[in-house]
Amino acid sequence: MKERPFGLSDKRLPTPLYQVEGLKEQTTYVWRVMATCEYNESKRASQKRFTTVSTGIDRIGISGVTAFVKNRMPNILNPEGGLIRKVSIYNESGVLVAAYDLETTDNVFVRLNVSGPVIIRVQGSNTARTLHVVVK
Q1: In terms of C-beta density within 10 A (0-12 exposed, 13-18 middle, 19 or more buried), how is residue 97 classed?
Q2: C-alpha torsion angle, residues 53, 57, 58, 60 (rounded to 10)
Q3: What is the pLDDT of residues 61-115, one digit of tens each?
Q4: Where in the chain does DSSP place strands (E)?
């Protein structure tokens, strides 16, 4: 883990709560506060630190994704819980017949109005997987 500077100096907060956004995974942050008003100013509080955790979402691949068809419905199984961002389905001639933009770690089920062999392209964060199934 690496320490990185992040400052909110001279930030006037209307409430005693402040939510910081855009923090990076597995990064240590140091913070301290100081109170001011029109009459006085406090000393800075002692430094505190925290380390963000890894969500793991982008690190789980989609290599274990498989598919089967039941009742004209491709079932895309995602046993590892990798992030699926897009599913594209092509007929045997390579023509796109369906596309779904997703952000899911669940299994995916879609109904198709085609029959015969289809190619299912599952795209994750950094990888893609191509599956071949037959829709009857």
Answers
A1: middle
A2: 110
A3: 788 899 999 988 999 999 989 899 999 999 988 899 999 999 999 999 998 888 8
A4: 28-31, 48-51, 66-70, 73-77, 84-91, 96-104, 108-109, 116-123, 128-135
Nearest to 64 by CA among 94, 84, 93, 90: 84
Concatenating the DSSP letter of every residue in 67-96 gives EEEETTEEEEE-TT-PPEEEEEEEETTS-E
pTM value is: 0.56
pLDDT at 121: 94
Question: Tokens at residue 19, please?
Answer: 């939510």
Write b or e for each residue in 15-29: b if 16 or more Cβ atoms lie within 10 A of its Cβ, otherwise e.
Answer: eeeeeeeeeeeeeeb
State the Cα–Cα distance between residues 18 and 1, nearest whole angstrom: 24
Q: What is the dihedral of CA 33, 38, 39, 41, to 10 degrees?
A: 20
User: What is the rounded distance in angstroms from the CA atom of residue 100 to the CA atom of residue 51?
Assistant: 36
